[in-house]
Task: inverse folding
């Protein structure tokens, strides 16, 4: 089946690109232009016509990428036409008239590239991240992943496990042959080395995921402290409704910001207080959950009514800035206990010390996003596979100590499989290849 789709952004534009991939791609180009396929990878100006009537649709560039030297690994073509909606629809309509041609599903071109061995899963995911990047640090991370150092690392660790597994498999297949003690010691040490490297990768403070998804900031505190006003101030727009009526915010209101190139998701939450209102109670529960999962908490209190007992004290214990609002109404100095906390005294009404607060937030972001390693976990999928790999390696090391090789081999297989699933590479035949390459079986 040959697939096609608009590969440039939807809407009116100067140029639009329609991509075609599959066995019939050459026939599609011939039917649209009435001419032979252009030279490979050479932009060629052609008239694009209605297949049945030969009526001109547009004049544009055709670029031909014969497989397997193409993005998808199949015969592929790109049609560059003017980006008017009617032109794009007309071109796609004519393509659909060709036999075995259908509209591509979301991500199907990249899926074909993966299936045909042109890219691995990490590269495919990095392409998606690069397309959706909204800030500079997100772009840099996606580009870093595309360079393939993470893939190389995971493949290297996997190859080490395959090598170890080949020794274990040999012992199972030839139980009468005793493996030298130095080999047993080497198996244990190399397995432990891989486990330590995995634990090091996992101990990353989830920086990769935070960059990809956004640094989560939750604005929390009692009612009428100025939380919604603070969200609007930081967002430079009216995101949340501001009212003097207590309990106005019932649900979580979110805004996506770009602060000095760092992706931030800032959430205004319901004011926390004792309430009998069922809807408000649910909003308060959401507020506490949002605060618990936030990377940073902005705890906003009224300068005239500062009570840090109970839940506020708990919120301030870690990853929090105390924001004392309505300082314009304050007639005496703050309590020395409050001055010892990480705090900012502000007035949203008078726009006082807002720059100081933003500066504090920026410093936290800069310190959080210090990246020293090229190997990053950018998705929960990667993390879960690494965790599972580590658990199976621990089980393997325990059974290896007991010389229970049959069961130990299964743990090692599962550990290897989880590493392979990160890059989308799972092939048990590689174990046999490793055995034959390193052992002269039948000698």
Result:
């Amino acid at each position: 089946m040959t697939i096609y789709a608009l590969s440039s952004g939807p809407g009116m534009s100067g140029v639009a690109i329609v991509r075609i991939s599959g066995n019939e791609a050459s026939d599609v180009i011939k039917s649209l232009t009435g001419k032979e396929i252009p030279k490979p990878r050479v932009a060629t100006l052609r008239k694009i016509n209605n297949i049945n009537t030969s009526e001109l649709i547009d004049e544009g560039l055709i670029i031909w990428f014969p497989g397997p030297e193409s993005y998808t690994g199949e015969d592929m073509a790109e049609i560059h036409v003017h980006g008017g909606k009617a032109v794009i629809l007309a071109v796609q309509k004519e393509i659909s008239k060709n036999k075995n041609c259908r509209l591509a599903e979301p991500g199907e071109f990249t899926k074909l590239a993966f299936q045909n061995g042109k890219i691995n899963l990490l590269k495919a995911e990095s392409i998606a991240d690069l397309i959706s990047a909204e800030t500079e640090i997100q772009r840099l991370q996606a580009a870093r992943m595309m360079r393939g150092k993470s893939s190389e690392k995971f493949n290297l660790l996997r190859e080490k496990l395959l090598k170890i597994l080949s020794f274990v498999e040999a012992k199972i297949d030839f139980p009468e042959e005793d493996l030298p003690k130095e080999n047993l010691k080497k198996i244990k040490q190399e397995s432990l080395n891989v486990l330590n490297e995995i634990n090091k990768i996992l101990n990353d403070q989830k920086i990769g995921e935070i960059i990809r998804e956004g640094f989560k900031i939750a604005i929390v505190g009692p009612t009428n402290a100025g939380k919604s006003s603070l969200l609007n101030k930081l967002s430079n727009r009216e995101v949340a409704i501001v009212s003097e009526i207590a309990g106005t915010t019932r649900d979580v209101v979110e805004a996506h910001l770009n602060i000095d190139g760092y992706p931030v998701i800032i959430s205004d939450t319901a004011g926390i207080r004792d309430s009998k209102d069922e809807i408000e109670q649910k909003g308060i529960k959401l507020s506490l959950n949002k605060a618990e999962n936030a990377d940073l908490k902005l705890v906003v209190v009224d300068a005239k009514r500062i009570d840090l007992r109970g839940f506020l004290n708990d919120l301030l214990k870690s990853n929090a800035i105390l924001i004392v609002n309505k300082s314009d109404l304050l007639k005496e100095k703050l309590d020395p206990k409050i001055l010892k906390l990480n705090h900012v005294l502000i007035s949203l009404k008078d726009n006082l010390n807002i720059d100081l607060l933003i500066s504090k937030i920026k410093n936290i972001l800069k310190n959080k996003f210090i990246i020293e390693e090229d190997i990053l976990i950018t998705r929960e999928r990667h993390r879960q596979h690494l965790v599972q790999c580590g658990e199976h390696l621990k089980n393997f090391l325990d059974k290896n100590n007991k010389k229970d090789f049959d069961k130990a081999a299964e743990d090692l297989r599962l550990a290897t499989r989880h590493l392979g699933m990160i890059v989308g590479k799972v092939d048990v035949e590689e174990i046999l290849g490793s055995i034959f390459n390193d052992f002269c079986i039948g000698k």
Observations:
- The chain has three domains: 2-114, 159-204+376-438, 211-368.
- Residues 117 and 306 are 61 Å apart (CA to CA).
